[in-house]
Amino acid sequence: MPLHGTIDFLTARNWEEKGSNFFDEVTKFLSKTLNVKFVFIDQYNKENRHHVDSISMVENGHNIKNISYRLKGSPCEQVVRGNYCHYKQDVQKLFPDDKILTDLNIASYAGAPTFSSSGEINGLVAIMHDDLIDNPHFEPMLKLFSSNIGGQIEAINMREGLKGARQLQAQSMKVLDLHTIISTTDKSGKILYANDMFCEISGYSREELIGSDHSILKSGEHNRLYYQSLYKTIVSGRTWNGDFKNKRKDGSYYWVAATIQPTYSRDGDLDGYITIRTDISKQKEAYYEIEQESVAKDHFLSNISHELRTPLNALMGYAQLIDIGPLTSEQSKYITGILTASDQLIERIDQLLSFEHDIVQAEGFCALKPCLDAVLETVTPLIQASKIQLYLDVASDVLVNVSDKNLRSILSNIISNAIKYNREEGKLAIQAKQVNNDFITVYIKDTGIGIPEVDQAIIFQRFNRGRNANSRIAGNGLGLSIVKELIDKIGGSIECKSDGASWSEFILNFPCEVPSP
């Protein structure tokens, strides 16, 4: 009986002993046993589920070249929907769009889906003949084989996936090895492995490194407490991250960013450490150059300040002495003009120095409400003098990603302008809203002279005050440019809205820190 032969085939597994391909042996067995012209086993295309790829194809008992084809319009499309299908005759008429049936002159077709261990269809096994399929056992044979074929397809895919993962891991390790300094140690710190990059950057051979510990690279840059903190972290089983200045064999230095991770035995005992480092010498050099430039700039600005203030102080001193004596009204007017212009010039020098210094100091975070309260306290006399009504709606637990010093500078500039350009008995509203987990939006709105639309894009540029600002109101056009650059530094934004005549609103978006519950 053919079914007995099928069971014998599956249980004997002679194909394994012969080292043969299971799928080829199956297609040959079915072709011979059922006496059909074509037998094929297909699996889904890995990139396109609308196509299948043949794993094994047999014509008259001989293997032929595998093919890939589209399921749509073929009898196989019906099979992969989960149905056993049998078309006794005239299959070409039933599927006129299937060119394979026409080219092979197929008259009858039968197919069964194959299933993975989770019950998902992963392919099919089918037979085709140029005449009627007259063996009465083909249906149970196909169904009997389909479960075994599905399991074999799944096993092969798993092996290929594992092989691909291993290849990817090997490639990744190769790339990592080319660009990263890697070493492993035992739990006492003795080096057990050093990759080529470690040898190349340190100048030591692998033989010199293995058996030594990392103290061979000590540069003297880091103090005892630095290393104590490191050892305390990794001995407790935690990962340590930090920077090292190391010394090469030739005495030169280099910087690395290091991650040290404890490793464990199968029993769960700490048995060593793996260290992965990247060379950051260029970044450190660049940072040092920036620091030096900053120091040089501060020195230059201090000198400029001194050179400008000295003659200005003398000029103001002489003008004040002259102002003591009897003067005509016209002379008194001239002296007042000299003193006023000198005050403005000194204020501009202070603003320039503050501007350059503040832009550098743009890190940290602080609470918004206390900082705002401190700013409002300094301008309260101005608010009271102009009888301005103040409206506040700011929560006390809001944190923003900007230093306290810079937040005060930002708020002070905006609020001072809102007071300075406001009208008598006007209004000033300050509101803060958390629009999402990333940003806090602060709205500062006044009822002052407004900012024309044409000026709203340029008021954040240095020395641009806008056409509505007049000479009677002190200012030099630096405040808003300071605010803009400080906010840009922290990844925030600022926007101006106004009707150009009776109100202005500044909308400030600050990156925020959400308080822990």
Structure report:
The longest helix has 44 residues, at 281-324. This protein folds into 4 domains: 3-162, Beta-Lactamase (2-Layer Sandwich), CATH 3.30.450.40; 180-279, Beta-Lactamase (2-Layer Sandwich); 285-354, Helix Hairpins (Orthogonal Bundle); 366-513, Histidine kinase-like ATPase, C-terminal domain (Heat Shock Protein 90, 2-Layer Sandwich). By secondary structure, it is of the alpha+beta class. It is elongated and about 135 Å long. Strands 1, 2, 3, 4, 5, 6 and 7 form a 7-stranded antiparallel sheet that branches. Mean pLDDT is 81; it is low at 16-20. The chain has helices at 2-12, 14-17, 22-34, 75-79, 91-94, 99-103, 138-179, 196-202, 206-209, 224-235, 281-324, 329-360, 368-385, 404-420, 479-489, and strands at residues 38-44, 51-59, 62-64, 68-70, 85-87, 108-115, 121-129, 181-186, 191-194, 240-247, 253-264, 270-279, 366-367, 389-393, 399-400, 427-434, 439-446, 493-498, 504-513. A hairpin with a 5-residue loop joins strand 10 (240-247) and strand 11.
Summarize, please.
With 517 residues, this protein is an alpha+beta fold. The chain has helices spanning 2-12, 14-17, 22-34, 75-79, 91-94, 99-103, 138-179, 196-202, 206-209, 224-235, 281-324, 329-360, 368-385, 404-420, 479-489, and strands at 38-44, 51-59, 62-64, 68-70, 85-87, 108-115, 121-129, 181-186, 191-194, 240-247, 253-264, 270-279, 366-367, 389-393, 399-400, 427-434, 439-446, 493-498, 504-513. The protein is elongated.
Question: What structural keywords apply?
Answer:
seven-stranded mixed beta sheet, seven-stranded antiparallel beta sheet, 4 domains, Beta-Lactamase, Helix Hairpins, 19 strands, single chain, 15 helices, about 525 residues, alpha+beta
